[in-house]
């Protein structure tokens, strides 16, 4: 995974800035706590929270690597983050965010006592706060899932003594059957890999082709994710959702069995530029509409609100007719219809994550709407949303620029060479901007999005400027002022961002 810089957002309170001879001592304290959190995180599953008390003040720091990256990448990412964070001194507050990790320091305690890691003592990542705000548990599991998890850990056994799942023969697959189906998980059968596990192509004894997801259970978080996925998906059926066929809990690792989707993921077609596999506009529009319908179903069509949390191009699979199917529900959260959700650990992919969720851990279905808006713009423009890269502007910024210039059609993928429905294209781009509004209240629901895309009588509200990772949402508004790489005049123009200021 790349560790290119996303944000180096500095937030300062002028009265708290340290001056004169105290700056040197503050810098020493900061260096000390940065070294501590970096070293501890590498020994502690990618997470650490520390405090360094000196003669000037106490400096608090937190470091966290995204769970999908390996130790070497985590180390490299934290090294770059630490370097960027030191440039924030002598400010009382500093943040550095990369595409693989996050690091923050402050002269104010921004994490609870339970989150602080002790020297030479491991800390369980699943109790951490979502980027420094205390939260509540993520998954609201059903009774079966809770019972299974309890049995798994109270007995300290493997997963082979769980009657609730074993008795459900329609979902249960023998481990040996799936092992043979994937040719013992041979690399030649590998379809892809994510933070939760590796997916292999399998052929069952009856000739049926399936996708087998081999999960990694290094912590309890992965076990919860497995049961969350089984309980949520097995009862959900929709043409635009990947079907879960069953699972195996009797072998050395847990496996999920999905329907096989032959054309793999959208990103493998959309972002590979050649003259053979260019997606036509009709296919793109169909993918956008189908994904919108699938998300709308997740958000309430199945009788329960399910928030996916990781909508992105690589999680949209395409069948033989290039119809979309939403995949990877391992991050899904089931929540009450009248509740928002505060996550205990940020999960998702930078570039698609809504600002309020990325920073404060505030999770509602509108986080999926934001991610879908980014996805829409990527599909229409053929460009990845490069918010992490200092060398190019984000897709959101470029589309907004064309919208303000009243030439929004110019943002459409040039490889289409003008072969697209201009009215549909305009609708897609405007709805994409509407979905990526900084304010949660201004984003439509997915049901409204689906209607805007298919009902030409719908009136589409005029979008406001998207945040472009606006730092005004990167810190609590009532405690500090914010800047984004440069001064306040650079808040929404990524071309003016300068690190460490």
Automatic annotation (TrEMBL):
Annotated Pfam families: Pkinase, Stress-antifung
Transmembrane residue ranges: 126-148
Domain Gnk2-homologous residue range list: 8-110
PANTHER family reported in the protein's UniProt record: CYSTEINE-RICH RECEPTOR-LIKE PROTEIN KINASE 3
An example Gene Ontology CC term for this record: membrane
Protein name in UniProt: Protein kinase domain-containing protein
InterPro entries in alphabetical order: CR_Ser/Thr_kinase, GNK2, GNK2_sf, Kinase-like_dom_sf, Prot_kinase_dom, Ser/Thr_kinase_AS
SMART domains, A to Z: S_TKc
Organism: Gossypium mustelinum
Keywords: ATP-binding, Glycoprotein, Kinase, Membrane, Nucleotide-binding, Receptor, Repeat, Serine/threonine-protein kinase, Signal, Transferase, Transmembrane, Transmembrane helix
Source species taxonomy: Eukaryota, Viridiplantae, Streptophyta, Embryophyta, Tracheophyta
Gene3D superfamilies given in the database record: Gnk2 domain, C-X8-C-X2-C motif, Phosphorylase Kinase, domain 1, Transferase(Phosphotransferase) domain 1
PROSITE patterns named among the record's database cross-references: GNK2, PROTEIN_KINASE_DOM, PROTEIN_KINASE_ST
Domain of life: Eukaryota
Membrane topology: Single-pass membrane protein
GO molecular-function term, one example from the UniProt record: ATP binding
Protein kinase domain boundaries: 185-469
Compartment(s): Membrane
